[in-house]
Amino acid sequence: QVQLVESGGGSVQAGGSLRLSCVASGNLSGRCMGWFRQAPGKKREGVAHMQIGGRYTNYADSVKGRFTISQDNAKNTATLQMNSLKPEDTAIYYCAAGPYGGICGYNYWGQGTQVTVSS
User: According to the model, what pLDDT value does residue 30 have?
Assistant: First the structure.
């Protein structure tokens, strides 16, 4: 069983930056870690994905060039650096982990952290 704990959410003005972190309870080497978000009244959408210890990364078109997903050397922490934030980035952000098989699959989820961007 993997447990995920997110931190780093908050409120910021448009154009600002936030950094989200997700700490996993175990070593996820070779697996995927990713970030999803869900805004009120909208479906949950994938934001950024990576293979721990590998080269695979993938971003939603809406965040390319603004968000960066990265991992630490211990391979149990995923970070999402969010720059040039827009009001439409406002959502609850969830960390997820799961198997990698060419693409990322997810079967573990964090509790979510709120990100609010004001105009």
Answer: 87
**At 36, which amino acid appears?**
F
pLDDT tens for each residue of 70-98: 987 666 889 999 999 999 999 999 999 99
Contacts 24+ apart (CB under 8 A), 37-45: 37/89, 37/91, 37/92, 37/93, 37/94, 37/115, 38/91, 38/92, 38/94, 38/112, 39/88, 39/90, 39/91, 39/92, 42/91, 44/94
Residue among 42, 41, 83, 39 at smallest CA distance from 59: 83
d(CA 111, CA 63) in angstroms, rounded, equals 22
